[in-house]
Amino acid sequence: MLATRIPRWKAVALATATVLVGLSAPALTATPAAATTTAYDSTYYKNAIGKSGTSLKSALHTIISPQTKLSYSAVWEALKVTDQDPNNSNNVKLLYSGISRSKSLNGGDSGDWNREHVWAQSHGDFGTSAGPGTDLHHLRPEDVTVNSIRGNKDFDNGGSSFTNSGGSLTDSNSFEPRDAVKGDVARMILYMAVRYEGDDSWPNLEANDSINGSVPYHGRLSVLKAWNDEDPPDAFEERRNNVIYSNYQGNRNPFIDHPEWVEAIW
């Protein structure tokens, strides 16, 4: 069942009609995500409703931790369903590039798409083992070369374009995804920070505000929070969340259902 939403605020620009001599116009800012309601609030999320801060994070961890774990090979077929191009059922939509590519071109060669770990494996030492290494909530299809360009870089604003970038940018130590998926990336990273708390043999993953921070951290938190506000969940992201919940893992990304919980926790 798709969640029913209360209309949310859009990002607004602070501007001034007249700029006085010696003064600059205010910078653009994003309005924090407005409160939402979903069909899952009285069932799946009932023990989280009304909480904030560490209490909310702990409640969500308990809620989303029970999940069916896939093998890394099973991820190939799952991504063909979760990331199917809504305009072409024979293709998947690549995360950073925005390219629609044939489902059959999955592999490791140039021109193929492979399995991108949005929370970089080296930022958690989890490899591709069942668990965080195969969690569909942060695994997405991406062009092999673009995936390599992203590597294990933290997420931040700035950089230069590259072949098949789709509008994404990169520099020596960070990666900025295209505008249409900035919020998606933020919500995937923050899902991982709540799902994996070090109590199930995997590291305690945490988002921080550093670039190239030490394991098990991923950044940059302040930028991810802004992206969550600027790029709210769309139909593709919501469908993906529902498919993972119903068909594969049995758990949800709470920040897709309630993007305002990002600010409530961090």
UniProtKB/TrEMBL annotation:
Residues 151-175 are annotated as: Disordered. Residues 1-29 form the signal peptide. Its EC number is 3.1.-.-. It comes from the Bacteria. InterPro entries: Endonuclease-I, His-Me_finger_sf. Residues 157-168 have a biased composition (Low complexity). Keywords: Hydrolase, Nuclease, Signal. The keyword Flavoprotein does not apply. This is Extracellular ribonuclease. It comes from Streptomyces davaonensis (strain DSM 101723 / JCM 4913 / KCC S-0913 / 768).
